Task: structure prediction
Amino acid sequence: MTRRETAITRAVALVALGLVSIAQTVYFYRSVVDYRAHFPEMPGNNELRKSPGLARNVLVVVVDGLRIDASYNMGTLNLLRDLGMVSISIVGLPSLSLPGDAVLFTGSWQEFSGVTTNWYKGPGPDSVFDEAKSSNLTTSTVGYGSVDMMFGRSIDMKTGYDQDRDILGQCLELMTNGSYNLMAVHFSSPDHEGHLHGGRSDQYMKAVADIDGYIAEILKHLNLNDSVVIITSDHGHRDEGGHGGREREVVETPLVIAGRGIRHVGLGHVNQTDVAPTISVILGIPIPSLCQGRPLVQAIDVDGAERDLLLELNAEQKSNLYARYRIFLDLDDTILGPANSSNLSALMEEVGEARQERITLERERRLPWLVAICILPLAYLFRRVKRLAMPLLGLALYISLDNLFYKADSNLLTISAFNSEGVAIALICRWISEVVVALLIVSFAVSLLSREGGERPEDVMTDTMITIFEAMLIQTAYLIYINPIGVTWALPNPDAWFDYLLKSFRMSIIGLTSPIFMWLTRLIHKQRGRSTSLMWHRPSQT
Result:
């Protein structure tokens, strides 16, 4: 094979690796976006026992994108804090709106609900709306399209308005007519302003103040002697705007509950999954079947025996859930005993260990093909081990530049940075430009350091790009190995998943642009040689 044919073959191989990286990036991206819970569908829990109930009506007000610090500027909400239960609700990941809505009303985290992104389509799992409907209670939503999509099967009255002022008007009309036992109201303007201007902007705070005024109007029509109001959020917002990651200002949201049977107490941090079972015990309906949370019994004004009953009902529901999940994890279907807190603890511990064992098994199955993928480029490099000094130097330079870009982008390396479609496109273009700039500098370095009469600079650059690609390939293979990325029945760590996507995307850019940089390195080297020749052979002027 001639040197030209060899160069073309290497370039084609790198481009092919780039295309594979793109396909892999898309596949693992879709593995989370298209994720669905695969264990057996859980029926409703209406056959289980339920609490006597505390109130005839529950009104849930969800202020989209409300940060915990911004909520303390809401005078009306602070008055409710003085009357009832106060806590900080921790949001699950990804901290997006639709997954947060699913968690609020099902009590199940994203892995169990199957709702992982805002692109989810289809019905959701068993929810408080389903259990309320099965218990012959009236349900309604105002301005809550996502909830209507997931749980519309059990919502009697659905009204979809875009403007918060219209949503308030419809809410007051439903309250005046008394046509609800469970109502969910959704105000969206803080989230809208947060995306546009940031979570500390004047526009955002103005929207929050407006919602506080709307809540005051709602309270004028709500009798807290026979009803309960719950005010919370699906997620917060970064200072720069955006959510989806694990930033503190994103995952910490306010949770305030006031009304009949609710004590004045502060509970510190609770989970977003605790809202649904708390609604259930207040209304006296079964806890949703996939619920992983617990009713906030510390906030409920009941005696010790009644509190024990509520905890027992929660243990029954969870035992039913984890017994089914236990079978899904290929454990036997032996019943561990009657549902109670002690048996539940043993069951949850066993299920946790079984889940980890199954992930470990998946990891062992992946190891051979991960090793094979890494060995292929490595085998090529070993054949050229005597010529790897320059490629390794190029790798060190690229890693140094890549780390500089990572530090400069530290605030952008999060799901929350994808604040809008326009921002997402800008970030992708930025990351492409960073890879191109780094490779351009490496290309200049290779062409300048290449010796006359030695190996061709374009061949050295090819080996350098293969070395860079191999180093990144090993990193991504390790991320796939230690995390359940791409596993169809479990969700990976969101940070590791995002880090993998970013590295895999950069690998694709390296592969696809390799012919350009091979040609550019040759061009720079030729130009340098021509300039040197002109300098040494310039005729002397006398």
